[in-house]
């Protein structure tokens, strides 16, 4: 692949990840579904969570877990490698903040996490989509539901 096309593909993947963050934090579940391949593999090893299956079932689970929870996800400075004309991989340093809102369910998470998204992508007629995602944590600060965080 020529260098210009490589840059075009990298920018398309950056736009995909920007849509991922926006859709997740605004609870745009149709938009969040659209960033994933139809069959996905998602893992959070530090939290012993693994999911392999349809993107629709995955997004339904994420939506339920975040009901009433205010979220802010940031990713920056990705290392993106185009591995073929239709495949790529990336590592995204990330920070996420979750805070129960007034409509949150009892026991909703309150946390600040730091780590990396390790992702693979597939390009089809629909454009680039996430195929696999592994979230590794470097640090996870959790505030018990009975306490109020200092930054509230």
Explain the overall architecture.
It is a single chain. The protein has three helices and seven strands. It is an alpha+beta fold and 152 residues long. The protein has one domain: Roll (Nuclear Transport Factor 2, Chain: A). Strands 1, 2, 3, 4, 5, 6 and 7 form a seven-stranded mixed β-sheet that branches.
Labels describing this entry:
Nuclear Transport Factor 2, Chain: A, 152 residues, seven-stranded mixed sheet, alpha+beta, 3 helices
Briefly characterize the structure:
This protein is α+β, with helices and mostly antiparallel strands and 152 residues long.
CATH class, named: Alpha Beta
How does CATH name the architecture? Roll
Distance between the termini: 49 Å
Q: Could you tell me the mean pLDDT? A: 94
Tell me about the biggest sheet?
7 strands, mixed
The whole-angstrom Rg is: 16 Å
The share of residues in helices is 25-40%
Number of DSSP strands? 7
Structural class: alpha+beta
Number of domains: 1
The general outline is: globular
In N-to-C order, the SSE pattern is HHEEHEEEEE
The fraction of residues assigned to DSSP E strands is over 45%
The number of helical runs is 3
Low-confidence spans: pLDDT under 50, at least 5 residues? none
Kindly identify the CATH topology. Nuclear Transport Factor 2, Chain: A
